[in-house]
Specification:
By secondary structure, the chain is an alpha+beta fold. It has helices at about 5-20, 25-40, 45-50, 55-100, 115-130, 145, 180-190, 230-245, 295-300, 320-325, 350-355; strands spanning about 135, 140, 165, 170-175, 190-200, 215-225, 250-255, 260-270, 285-295, 310-315. The chain contains 11 helices and 10 strands. It has a 7-stranded mixed sheet with strand order 1-5-6-10-9-8-7. A 3-stranded antiparallel sheet has the order 2-4-3.
Length: about 350
């Protein structure tokens, strides 16, 4: 390459540099482009290495030409860097002027949600839309509220169905959330629409579908002319809202002293799809919701006239419902403190969850 060709090549490189630098958006991009022009293997860097290939009498002129080009391209980069810095300063200033310190801050995510908590939030939201209130009762209960006021006297065989943790003070750890029924009747009187989610305890052997500590959600509706049809309609609505689709259920007779008639509402096992697994004990069905019409004796314990009012009650198994919703095969995972069992935000659905988060 003679000197004229070198000058032409240098002019092309400078023109390319101007064209490229006109559209550089950031300092990082500028650094990446700089090496293509001024690096040792860049356009000008390669030409610098050719000086010795020229005759001795031309090397001075070639060196001057390349040095001038290097200074010109370097100046272009410095000018572009100042332009980007000025633009970023204006942008930051605009953001600062647009900031309103009176607006509420963004609430940071506190972590993932326990499956039972997620299902409880959804159920509370569903029932609140139906006009139900959310009530609570003590986990350490009296014998009266846990048994007697629910039509289970001391000599009743139904007490043997619920292996109870008795405490030294004569109280007990509640075996179900049903005591909330009587407490709500005493507190409000008819008409009543309420649910009572909470933790329960039973002294029993654990397996894939049974635990000694689990969660239920008690439900109670008392008014004039309440029927079994109302109970079934509410239960099917609840399951449809929780699972976001129709769920196959079956209603079969069941004995519970505090309801008459009593039913067991089972749902198709969502783990195996009804084909049979350890969770459903090979039956294809999971007991999810003992329910029935409130027994007249229970209404009387709650100071409500059974000749004037009727109602239904249910004890929804929150833990089992969470297992079905999130595909958890073993109920014992719920109480093991395993962080892998928590529900990631990406799997949480529904306005209730969004509001809580």
């Amino acid at each position: 390459m003679d000197i004229e060709q070198l000058r032409t090549e240098v002019g092309t490189i400078q023109a390319d540099a101007r064209r490229v630098l006109a559209d550089i958006p950031s300092v990082q991009a500028l650094r990446e482009v700089r090496s293509k022009f001024l690096g040792k293997k860049g356009a000008l860097g390669r030409l610098m290495g050719t000086v010795r290939s020229y005759p001795p009498e031309q090397r001075s002129e070639v060196g001057q030409t390349l040095n001038q080009a290097n200074k010109a391209v370097t100046a272009l980069f410095e000018e572009t860097a100042r332009r980007i810095a000025s633009s970023e300063s204006v942008s930051e200033a605009s953001k600062a002027s647009a900031f309103d310190p009176t607006l509420p801050g963004v609430r940071p995510a506190l972590g993932n949600v326990h499956p039972v908590t997620a299902v409880q939030w959804e159920i509370e939201h569903v029932f609140q839309r139906l006009g139900f209130t959310v009530e609570a009762g003590p986990e350490m209960e009296t014998e009266y509220y846990n048994f007697e006021a629910l039509n289970i006297p001391a000599d009743h065989p139904a007490r043997d169905m619920q292996d109870t943790f008795w405490l030294k003070n004569g109280w007990l750890l509640r075996t179900h959330t049903s005591p909330v029924q009587v407490r709500a009747m005493e507190k409000f009187g008819p008409p009543i629409r309420c649910i009572g989610p909470g933790r329960c305890f039973r002294y029993e052997t654990t397996d894939a579908s049974h635990e000694n500590t689990f969660h239920q959600c008690e439900g109670l509706m008392i008014d004039r002319n309440i029927s079994i049809a109302n109970l079934i309609a509410v239960m099917k609505l609840l399951l449809r809202e929780v699972f976001r689709r129709e769920v196959k259920v079956r209603l079969r007779p069941g004995f519970f002293p505090f309801v008459e008639p009593g039913f067991e509402l089972d749902m198709n096992c969502q783990i195996c799809g009804g084909s049979g697994c350890a969770t459903c004990k090979k039956s294809g069905w999971v007991e999810i919701l003992p329910c029935g019409m409130v027994h007249p004796n229970v209404l009387r314990y709650g100071n409500i006239d059974p000749h004037e009012y009727t109602g239904f009650a249910f004890g929804l198994g929150l833990t089992r419902l969470a297992m079905m919703k999130y595909g958890i095969h073993d109920i014992r995972v719920m109480n093991q403190g395993d962080l892998r069992a928590l529900v990631p935000p990406s799997r949480l659905t529904g306005p209730a969850i969004q509001a809580k988060q």
